[in-house]
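FORM 7B: Structural annotation worksheet

SECTION A. Query
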Amino acid sequence: MAGRIPEQPAPVSGGEPRDRAGGEPRAIDVSVVVPAKDEAESVGVLAAEIETALVPTGLAWECLWIDDGSRDDTLARLETLHAGDERHRILVFDRNYGQSAAMLAGFRRARGRMIVTLDADLQNDPADIPRLLELLAAGPAAMVNGVRAKRHDRWVRRISSRIANGFRNRLTHESVTDVGCSLRAFRAECVRDLPSFHGMHRFLPTLVRMQGYAITETPVGHRIRRYGTAKYGIGNRLWVGIADTFGVRWLMRRYVKPIVRYDSLAHDAASETPPRPSAAATPGIRTGNEAASKRVPAESHRG
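SECTION B. Predicted structure
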C-alpha cells in the first residue's frame, strides 16, 4: 500500500530499542504522549493496548506518560510500568497544570520522529495508531487529526463540543471536523515550538497550519469511559474554549515565522571559505499565513 510504514527490526522487550544483533540503540520512530490525571485503573490496560498496536509495526517506540498532578495511585502504577519496561517513560508534575501543559512537555521531551497523542481514559483506541502513522508516512500532511466517528459521551458534552468547535472554526477560518479528539499523529518538527498557554490542545490543527504545515483528518474509534470521571464539562470546555478562540485569533494575525536565508553555522566547520549569500537576495520576514501559502496548500487534506 502506498505510504505504508517500512518494516523495521523488532525492538527487544524493555530498555532502549536495539537492532537484531543487540548492538547500538536504535533511533526512536514513534513517541506516544499520554497525559494522565487520576487514571490509575486505566494505566495498565492502556499500556498493554499501546504495545499490542505498535509491536507488529516493527517501529522503535517509546511511551511518555505525563502525571499531571494525580492524587490517586496513577504514579505508583506508572512506576511499576516503567520498572518492567523502560520504553514507558514517566514525567511527573508537582501539581496539576492541565492537558495543554502535559502535551507540550511530552512534545519537547519526545525522541521520536513521529509523535502520537491520546487520552489516558481508554476512550481513544490505540488500535487506530498504525493507520494514523501510515497516513502520516504517505504525506504530504504533517498532522493527522482523528475524527470520532461515533462518540460515546453524554449529550451535554456532545452539544457543547459541537458549539465550541463550530465557533472555533468560524473565527480561525478552519474546517476541522473534530478539534476535541485527542488521538492524533504528527511529524515531530511541527509541534516542537508551539506557544504555551492553557487550552493550546484545542487549537493544535490551527497552530500546526500557521507554521506552514498541511493537515489531514481520518475517522477513529471512540469508546465508553470504563473508569474514573470526565475532566471537562460546559464550564471548562464550552465557555473557556470560546474565550480562548479570541486569543488564538489575535495570535494568527500577529504570528511571524522568519525564513532563514543563510546560517554560517550550518556550513562544515572545516570549510575555510564558506559560501556567502547572494547580494541580490533580499532578506525578509514572512508572516505565518504567507509562509503557509508558499509551502503547502491552504486547504485541509481529508482522509
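SECTION C. Observations
The domain at 30-254 is CATH 3.90.550.10 (Spore Coat Polysaccharide Biosynthesis Protein SpsA; Chain A). The chain is about 35% helix and 15% strand.

SECTION D. Sign-off
Analyst initials: ____
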